[in-house]
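Hey, I'm writing a tutorial for new members on how sequence and structure tokens pair up, and I'd like a real worked example in the thread rather than a made-up one. If someone can provide the structure for the chain below, I'll link this post from the tutorial.
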Amino acid sequence: MKFLYLPVFTILFLLSCKTASEEIPLGELPLFTPGIIQEIESLGDDIFFSHIAYRTIPLEDEAVFLPDRNLDKIFKVSSDGNLISIISSDGRGPGEIHDITFISRSFDNNIIVYDQMNKKVLRFSASGEFLDEFILQPWEKGGIFEVYELDETHLLTVYRSIAYLSNPDAEPEAYFVIYDKEAERYIQSVTMSDRPFARIIVNDQIRGGRTVPYAPEHVRYFNHRNSSFYTFWTEEATIVSLSESLDTTRTISFELSREPLSRDEINEIRDDSGDDLWRSMRPLLPEYKAIANSMIIDDQNNFWLKLNHRSEYQQWLILSEAGEKLAIVQLPKDGLLTHVSDYHLGFRLDDHLFALFEPIEL
């Protein structure tokens, strides 16, 4: 078994092609505040959402694949909020799921689902037909978090370490690992720093904790339209494209200033932490907030970055493939953007309520 170890910042300097944009103040960009097309809280009289997934898949017929983790189901829902079909239900048999934790679009436009409880990867067609499934071999350094199908042979799996939950000296790490489906083994990996974690330590034992707000992290997205995997270390204004061998193929640079962590934000974090956690949280808080905390790629291959800038809205910066700033999109402060398409924006308002917002036309 072959593994490649690279420090977190190494990939940022393995540049084969670099693009950059001039610094344009955010206040000079076009500003969009899309309205709601449809709110969906149930599918008929007997299906009420319990824990809507954090990612949804838009389809070419304007429908959406909408998973619910607690219900152990994937629904195909029309743009007017009606149930079209149930793609998968609870179980351990072929095509069945028991704990869906991640869903993504594959290189050939199929749907990839990871079932944490059954420890298997399932493949469905864009129409919802079950294609096949397989079990990933365990990997010694962590638990699986995300799965992307890069081509017919290779998966890119994202693992996260768990050692820092029991070892006070361990630091959070994430691993990008290539899995060869034909050989049924892992063939290459890159080790990354993961988002800092503040721990409650009593008598040298970890008693809990939480991730550090506004701290840098790696966010990522697989663009099935050009079969490219992108990662973004949110402390740096650079998005990196990785090949199936985890080499850097291109970097997209842009200019964007970082905001200092304000006194009000520090006080809010302290109020949410409690005295025991605050003692370890305070030294880990960044002086300047990370640029963003999420990334999505739309149908036009534009990058959407969820900014950490102070605002009464949730603000998303749209960048072109070359890193040019195109627009700012404002969405409700609370909630989660789950997909972007030419037909609508998917938005998780809370565990039980899903909404489709108007698309953005640039």
